Amino acid sequence: MSATLLDTWYMTRRQLVVFARQPAYAVITLIQPVIWLFLFGSLFRKVVELGGFGTTSYLDYLVPGVVVMSALSSNMWAGMGTLEEIQRGTLNRFLTTPVSRAALMNGNVVNNGLVTALQSVVIVLLGLLGGADYPGGIGGVTVLVVASVLLGTVFGALSNALGMLVRERESIIGINTFLLLPLTFLSSAFMAPSQTPSWMRHIADFNPLDWAMVAGRSAMSAHPDWGDVLGRGGALLGLAVAAVWLSIRTFRSYQRSV
Asked: What is the pLDDT at residue 136?
């Protein structure tokens, strides 16, 4: 187990070095969240007058949604990196080394998780600068960040598995484009559940994106519902473990094919 952890850290550090050498990439990935946060936050600021948002500031409601959306959109493309390493032959060269096979997949997932946590904290700070209020304090923000990392792990691991299976950029782009908007709008990202049609609320109950939002928003509120936090958080954790297991199994299948 210790060898696997060391190998995972080595593979993670390898990707973190690449990330650190491209600081412009970190800035670019924050452009869209900033647009969602301040453009949509200003455009729909009066929507809270409809009721059901649990706050008098739409920005307070929007920040957790943007954090979770950012985690989803950035991690859905993890498979592109895996596919690039397959096409360059980098992954096959690692197969000739004694490095743990699980670490080859998990290094990517851990790297994305750390980057997601950093992005989430930056978005929370930007919201704070914009006037958002977080009654749940540091504890609530921590729950939101952890929920976003778990969600990112789910979709990052699934994206890796997808890259192993399809091995085509066009397929990954098509599937991600198809899933991103429905997952976002069939959740409580922008609108309070009480203001949405009942069929959308029922679908949101099975949407991992909404699980992360509910857990984060509840923890950041003045009176957290810890049943919601633990229930949604536990579901995300279970799904993340299953997704990582699937990506490792898919990688072993790929290994047998080369």
From this structure: 92
Beta carbons of 4 and 103 less than 8 angstroms apart:
yes
Q: What is the pLDDT of residues 27-70, one digit of tens each?
A: 777 888 888 898 888 888 899 988 889 888 999 999 999 999 99
Distance CA 128, CA 134 (A): 8
Model pTM score: 0.90
Please report how many Cα atoms fall inside a 13 Å half-sphere around the Cα of residue 218, on the Cβ side. Answer: 18
pLDDT the model gives residue 87: 81
How open is the CA angle 27-28-29, to the nearest 5 degrees? 95
Query: How far lies 96's CA from each of 64, 167, 255, 258, in Å?
Result: 43, 21, 11, 11
Encode pLDDT of 161-183 as tens digits.
888 888 788 888 888 888 888 99
Pairwise CA distance, residues 46 & 144, whole Å? 24
- Size (the chain), residues: 258
Residues of the chain scoring pLDDT < 70? 1, 258
* 3 state SS for the chain: CHHHHHHHHHHHHHHHHHHHCCHHHHHHHCHHHHHHHHHHHHHCHHHHHHCCCCCCCHHHHHHHHHHHHHHHHHHCCHHHHHHHHHHHCHHHHHCCCCCCHHHHHHHHHHHHHHHHHHHHHHHHHHHHHCCCCCCCHHHHHHHHHHHHHHHHHHHHHHHHHHHHHHCCHHHHHHHHHHHHHHHHHCCCCCCCHHHCCHHHHHHHCCCHHHHHHHHHHHHHCCCCCHHHHHHHHHHHHHHHHHHHHHHHHHHHHHHHHC
